């Protein structure tokens, strides 16, 4: 119940700030996206999920490059803005759902992105395990953590406890850790 209330509050906050999100954060988020994509091989056969996709900033980088591109978010207001991008950047699907209960079956996605989502989640390890569930056994995950919300030690511990293998970390001038992880399941 507490976790439901927490998620509801977060959703309302993003609903209310949706219209100014890009103005405020697009530069910061796009810098993280560029850092992540530099070290990730994306193939045209891939199924890709952007968890907590927000206004769809990542779609600008991936559109036309993968077979299946899905954005998932809890806030209807941000999804409406993401949908507007459809005419500019092309084909993707949007789903309104909670990142802890992703409405897809196991082992679907080659890559799952979760940019600046985890600080919103009541139990980040649970969210990471949900990411692992829907990822292919040898898939990759890009997850970012705000430095103001997590120390590096805390963030690393979360990822490792969830069962992810850290492959690369970019932080430098960024406001968040951008971490490329491998799924480890057989
Ligand atoms: C900081 S924004 C990041 C948006 C986008 N990934 C980006 O990098 O621009 C966090 C997003 O997570 C979404 N979010 C928060 N809690 C969520 C939940 N429980 N399930 C799905 N999305 C959630 C918010 O609605 C918001 O769009």
The CATH superfamily appears as Vaccinia Virus protein VP39
How many domains, in number, for the residues?
1
What proportion strand?
15-25%
Largest sheet: 7 strands, mixed
Shape: globular
Bound molecules: S-adenosylmethionine
Return the string of H and E elements.
HEHEHHEEHEHEE
CATH structural class: Alpha Beta
Give the CA-CA distance, first to last residue: 34 Å
Radius of gyration: 15 Å
- Unreliably modeled segments: none
- DSSP helix fraction: 40-55%
Mean pLDDT reading: 94
By secondary-structure content and strand pairing, the structural class works out as alpha/beta
CATH topology term: Rossmann fold
Please give the order of strands in the largest beta sheet. 3-2-1-4-5-7-6
Number of helices: 6
* E-strand count: 7
CATH architecture: 3-Layer(aba) Sandwich
Question: Could you explain the architecture of this structure?
Answer:
The chain is built from 6 helices and 7 strands. It has 186 residues and is of the alpha/beta class. It has a 7-stranded mixed β-sheet, sandwiched between helices. Strand 6 and strand 7 form a beta hairpin. Helix 1 runs parallel beside helix 3. The longest helix is centred in the first third of the chain and has 37 residues. The chain binds S-adenosylmethionine (SAM). The site of S-adenosylmethionine (SAM) has 19 residues, from helix 1. The site of S-adenosylmethionine has 19 residues, from helix 1.
